[in-house]
Design goal:
Pfam families: Hydrolase. The protein has 240 residues and is of the alpha/beta class. The chain is built from 11 helices and 6 strands. It is globular and about 60 Å long. It starts with 7 loop residues before the first strand and ends with a helix.
């Protein structure tokens, strides 16, 4: 199997193309600065993963910018900090402004010349519209949790994406699902029989950070530590 075998790359965005964890840490700073006990970066991210996953499971139709304030409030309760709802809402809106990884734009610009680029994101349309200005390319398809009415790793999100792509003449065998999260993306990719590429942004860290532990580790067809590593591997394939 080669990267050049595929016609379309389907992407997770937050955590793969955008620095999700960095955005969380920055956005949560007004809260974490008031916590009386010491919290490590992974303490913060793992607690966020738990409350976010719970909220997504119980409120699948809630928009991401509406869901994040609930996560902020739950974290404040756990850590014993008084917060206003306005503060919680400010965190929800911050996700529109989280930054791309340094290699993302250059890598996407290269890959756009060779593949259709498609987004399958656990955010809403408003949040993604802000984030999209930081990605530097026009995507051939954008499918948000708001569009679908549920959050990955729900089957419904992948069913929706596959149906929409089939209407464009893109079959399952044409697709390489490209993502960081084992929980949100690679486990369902395995279930749906999609070829998959792991962008291992946490290659120099332990644990799963802001994503839930998937339990049994999913399999993957390709692994790269960054989007640029993936682009260079494709370039090397074409060079022979």
């Amino acid at each position: 199997m080669k990267l050049s075998d595929f016609k379309a790359l389907t992407f997770d965005v937050y955590g793969t193309l955008l620095d999700w964890e960095g955005g969380m840490i920055t956005g949560l700073k007004p809260l974490t600065d008031r916590v009386s006990r010491n919290l490590t970066r992974d303490d913060i991210l793992e607690a966020h993963a738990f409350y976010e996953s719970t909220a997504q499971r119980y409120s699948p139709a809630k928009k991401y910018y509406e869901l994040l304030p609930v996560v902020y409030r739950r974290l404040a309760e756990e850590w014993g900090v008084e917060v206003t709802w306005e503060e919680c809402e400010a965190y929800g809106m911050s996700a529109r402004h989280w930054h791309a990884f340094d290699d993302t734009i250059e890598a996407l610009t290269y890959l756009k010349k060779h593949f259709k680029l498609v987004v399958l994101t656990n955010t809403d349309n408003l949040t993604f519209s802000g984030a999209n200005t930081r990605l530097g390319v026009h995507f051939d398809g954008v499918y948000t949790a708001e569009d679908v009415g549920s959050y990955k790793p729900a089957d419904r999100n992948f069913d929706y994406m596959l149906e929409m792509l089939a209407r464009q003449g893109i079959e399952k065998t044409d697709i390489l699902h490209t993502a960081e999260s084992m929980f949100h993306d690679h486990a369902p990719a395995n279930k749906f029989g999609l070829a998959n590429c792991w962008i291992y942004r946490r290659h120099d860290k332990e644990g799963f950070g802001a994503t839930m532990n998937p339990g049994e580790m999913p399999t993957y067809n390709f692994r790269f530590n960054s989007m640029m590593d993936m682009a260079k591997a494709h370039q090397a394939e074409l060079a022979g």
